[in-house]
Amino acid sequence: MAKKNFNELLQQKNKQTEQQQDVTELAKGMLSKKATGDLKETTIKLRITVKEKDLWQQKAKEQYNKSLSLFIRENVNYNIERGVTADDLLKK
After folding, report:
1. pLDDT tens digit string along 40-91?
2. Whole-angstrom Cα distance, residue 27 to residue 73?
3. Considering the entire predicted model, what is its pTM?
4. CA distance 45 to 47
């Protein structure tokens, strides 16, 4: 009899553990990338002239219909992927 109670209690414990794991996984799936650490937000300050800012915003809206920060981020990533350095850009 004691063995039966022990087995039943063990099965209940296992079932609770499985349910808890399912709930945990579900909750993790609902978290944003920022919350899970997959995406870390960093602010970078960039000194540009008002004229440059206006030109960049205009290009971002006209050609890509994107925000200025997204436009800058994508252009920087594009150049990094291709191995373009600041010196290369200044030579042009």
Report:
1. 677 888 899 999 999 999 999 998 898 998 898 888 888 888 888 878 877 7
2. 30
3. 0.49
4. 7
Whose tokens are 């960049």? That residue is 56
d(CA 68, CA 70): 6
Residue 56, classed as helix, strand or coil, is helix
**Amino acid 57: pLDDT:** 93
- Cα–Cα distance list, 34 to 4, 19, 38, 40 (Å): 48, 26, 6, 6
Residues whose CB falls within 8 Å of the CB of residue 66, separated by 6 or more in sequence, listed in order: 60, 74
Q: C-alpha angle with apex 66: 63 to 68, nearest 5 degrees?
A: 105
For 14, the token pair is 């296992």
